[in-house]
Design brief:
heterodimer; A: 323 residues; alpha/beta; D-Maltodextrin-Binding Protein, domain 2; 2 domains; ten-stranded mixed beta sheet; 11 helices; 10 strands; globular; B: 498 residues; mainly alpha; 21 helices; membrane (chain B); Tripartite tricarboxylate transporter permease (chain B)
Chain lengths: 323, 498
């Protein structure tokens, strides 16, 4: 009896798969997994795009938050999801490039082999910010101060293995200075300690920093991107300071489980590109100082993920951070 | 007068028909959701966040804020009626509130909670309006070592909280702190006791643990006994008598003051405030033996404290852009989706929004009293429903609540396991409340201690040389001595008698 039911189930499953043709996708709502908690920048960006994307696909797009372990839990879930295009991942540098190298051999997914990378979404460089009373105002002054006072500079981050933490490690390695990393939990508690001068330095995105710097609660002394930020034209980049190895840019993208039919990948990529051109999304990107990376389609995005993984593998080895 | 001008601007915004309607919807939703065990404000706001995107920013914020303090109100209802605290801040309310309910005084306990919360809400609203900028500066005085000292003081105070022996509650705090060690080590990123399960990387969540013990284990224990009604004595008056009023006035005043201050500090302010208020009331009470057996001060103080703290926790959010708890973090998200960056500039760039929100808090508190006092009779009726009909509903709502935190069934398995352990704890008559406090404060003690040590490069004397943390630790030592005194005295008396 059980065998009979199994056979029936297999037949039904096969038939079912035969019914859903890739070119018809999507015929039902699409779930967009955001591996971070509701309310953060990643979540709000996804929700902003999802509204437009639903319009372009002609199906509703449901944003589902699956937070945990810096994005690993949600990413793992999508890696083993059915590759039928109905479970979409909002991927980002943390779970796709930094953590796989930091926790080498401990994650259940491979960021390159287990995913079909669909479309680049945003890239954001970070600002280097200092406590208002810090004895340095520019990037070269910071480096000079750190060299003159070895072991005195403390920098905070939202935790081990975050892009902000790596920004600090990269800068210390590139400038050959000594800085103590003070890890915090979540995105904001280090900001209080930075304002009150408990820590000297931090690295974070424009959307996080701008309210504080506008109010004079902290000072921006540099930027980690290759180019200056339009909203902070005075912040010298690490490249200008002669430290091209300290460039650190946070990125997000959309991925599907590996084995998803190519038609679906291409159709989703096209719909996302169209969504990102929508005025409401463009305005949101501008306000949060996120640079859209619309030009990174399925092929370029895969290549980019491979390169990012190679880069972080190097840093982890060089800084001796592997667990 | 700046304050009056600001407040009148605020009321102009809060008292538009639209915004009153949204404040009402928020308060109503919050109360309902808070009453359902297991569904807290966090889950509700997370679920409703998408709806607010189509509203204007001030309407969205006013509604979300309404849900937040509405749920605080509703949460104490379940704590009192069925001994199920949905949130860390109502754990304390359950202790004496539930005992009052069993004595047929559920109505009095609920009205006390509502009146205390209303008064505290008004105090906190005024405090926010008058002192927000100054108070946010006070929060800046708290660095890692000061937080460490504050948390130690909080934990020490919590051990005297339970009615049982001090050693037992201390043991339960430590057990809670040990459970909180599960997860990623903040300083090294190393995994502790996660057994390779990625769902444990962020540690054990409060809700599955609280629901496992106060929900599931409690149900198992209740079912073991004969079919019983939740009330052991006849339901007496619904509203406080003159004697009750006399007993609750001072605790409400003290609770409001304590909560207003502790709410400003980012990180667990509301929970700490309710625990601290309970301890304070018990210590200065002329009849400390009543605590744990239905003391009205044990409901009035903590309820006022947690409501005041819930409101002043908007101060770090609105003035520094710092969310002090997970709900506040969601509200940041709601502001961001409307292109408002929370931070020091909100007050000057969006004065209508800022003062409108503050004024709406007062409006919301008034609504909650109007909404809740007539409902008291209805909630009390719930107690007369036979338990065999009530518990499947409690179980179901607990499950929905637990699942909704992370959209993950793993949390449910966790609660099921906690149920087994929790049943043992209840059978051994150990106090579960201090364990939850240990779970909430444990990670903060550890993080702040290690952060302070990292900053001082391993020099432990910083905790005593800094004036603020030194004072707090000194108070902790004095509290410890006072805590030991009665037992020393009791032992001496016993020795003298022999």
């Amino acid at each position: 009896m059980i065998r009979l039911m199994t056979i029936a189930a297999v037949v039904a499953a096969t038939f079912g798969v035969g019914m859903a043709r890739a070119e018809d996708w999507p015929t039902r709502p699409v779930t967009w997994v955001v591996p971070f908690a509701a309310g953060g920048v990643t979540d709000t960006t996804a929700r902003k795009i999802a509204v437009v994307l639903a319009d372009k696909l002609g199906q509703s797009v449901i944003v589902e938050n699956k937070p945990g372990a810096g994005g690993i839990v949600g990413t793992e879930g999508v890696a083993v999801a059915k590759p039928d295009g109905y479970t979409v991942l909002y991927a980002s540098g943390g779970p796709m490039a930094i953590l796989p190298n930091l926790k080498k051999g401990k994650l259940s997914y491979d960021p390159v082999k287990d995913f079909a990378h669909v479309q680049g979404i945003t890239s954001s460089s970070q600002l280097i910010v200092a406590s208002p009373n810090a004895p340095f105002n520019t990037l070269p002054e910071l480096i000079a101060y750190a060299k003159a006072n070895p072991g005195k500079v403390n920098f905070g981050s939202p935790g081990i293995g975050t892009a902000q933490h790596f920004a600090g490690e990269l800068l210390a390695a590139a400038a050959d200075i000594e800085m103590t990393h003070i890890p915090y939990k979540a995105g904001t508690s280090q900001m209080v300690d930075l304002m009150s001068g408990v820590i000297d330095l931090s690295f974070d995105y424009t959307s996080v920093i701008k309210p504080y710097s506008d109010a004079g609660k902290m000072k921006v002394i540099g930027a980690t991107g290759p180019e200056r930020l339009p909203s902070f034209p005075d912040a010298m980049t690490v490249v200008e300071a002669g430290l091209p190895d300290a460039v650190n840019v946070g990125w997000t993208s959309v991925a599907l489980p590996a084995g998803t039919p190519q038609e679906i990948v291409d159709k989703l990529s096209g719909a996302l590109q169209a969504s990102m051109a929508d005025p409401s999304v463009v305005e949101y990107f501008a306000i949060n100082a996120q640079t859209p990376i619309t030009d990174k389609g399925p092929k370029d995005m895969t290549q980019f993920v491979v390169e990012e993984n190679e880069k972080f593998a190097r840093i982890v080895t060089a800084a001796g951070l592997a667990e | 007068m700046d304050l009056l001008a600001n407040l009148s601007l605020g009321f102009q915004h809060a008292l538009t028909f639209n915004n009153i309607a949204y404040a009402f919807i928020g308060c109503l939703l919050g109360t309902l959701i808070g009453v359902l065990p297991g569904l807290g404000p966090l889950a509700t706001i997370a679920m409703l966040l998408p709806i607010t995107y189509s509203l204007s920013p001030d309407a969205a914020l006013i509604m979300l804020a309404g849900i937040y303090y509405g749920a605080q109100y509703g949460g104490s209802t379940t704590a009192i009626i069925v001994n199920l605290p949905g949130e860390s801040s109502s754990v304390v309310t359950a202790i004496d509130g539930y005992q009052m309910a069993r004595q047929g005084r559920a109505g009095v306990a609920l009205s006390t909670a509502a009146i205390g919360s209303f008064f505290a809400g008004c105090t906190a609203t005024l405090a926010i309006a008058a002192f927000a900028p100054i108070l946010s500066e006070a929060a800046l005085q708290f660095g890692p070592k000061e937080y460490f000292a504050l948390m130690i003081l909080g934990i020490l105070l919590a051990t005297v909280l339970s009615t049982g022996p001090v050693l037992e509650s201390l043991g339960m705090v430590i057990l809670g702190a040990m459970i909180s060690l599960v997860g990623t080590d903040v300083n090294t990123g190393e995994q502790r006791f996660t057994f390779g399960l990625t769902q444990l990387y962020d540690g054990v969540d409060f809700v599955p643990l609280a629901m496992g013990i106060f929900g599931f284990a409690e149900i198992v224990r209740n079912l073991r006994s004969e079919e019983r009604s939740l009330v052991t004595q006849k339901i007496t008056n619904l509203f406080p008598t003159r004697d009750d009023w006399r007993k609750m006035t001072a605790p409400i005043l003290r609770g409001s003051a304590l909560g207003t201050f502790l709410g400003i500090l980012p990180g667990g302010g509301a929970a700490l405030a309710s625990f601290a208020s309970y301890t304070l009331e018990k210590k200065i009470s002329r009849t400390p033996e009543e605590f744990g057996h239905g003391a009205i001060a044990g409901v009035a103080g903590p309820e006022s404290a947690n409501n005041a703290a819930a409101q002043t926790s908007f101060i770090p959010l609105l003035t520094l852009g710092l969310p002090s708890n997970a709900v506040m973090a969601l509200i940041v998200g709601a502001m961001m989706i409307h292109n408002i960056q929370p931070g020091p500039q909100v007050m000057t760039s969006n004065p209508g929004l800022f003062w409108g929100l503050i004024a709406s808090m007062w409006v919301g508190n008034l609504m909650l009293v109007i909404l809740n006092l007539p409902l008291v009779g209805l909630w009390v009726k719930l107690l007369t429903i036979p338990y065999r009909f009530l518990y499947p509903a409690i179980m179901m709502f607990c499950c929905i609540g637990i699942y909704s935190i992370k959209n993950d069934t793993f949390e449910l398995y966790q609660a099921a396991l906690v149920c087994v352990v929790g049943y043992g704890i209840l059978q051994l008559k150990l106090p579960p409340a201090p364990m939850l406090l240990g779970l909430v404060l444990g990670p903060q003690v550890e993080e702040n201690f290690r952060r302070a040590m990292l900053l001082s490069r391993g020099d432990a004397t910083v905790f005593f040389t800094s004036p603020l943390s030194g004072t707090l630790l000194a108070i902790a030592v004095v509290a410890l001595i006072f805590m030991m005194l009665p037992s020393i005295r009791a032992r001496r008396e016993k020795a003298l008698q022999e």
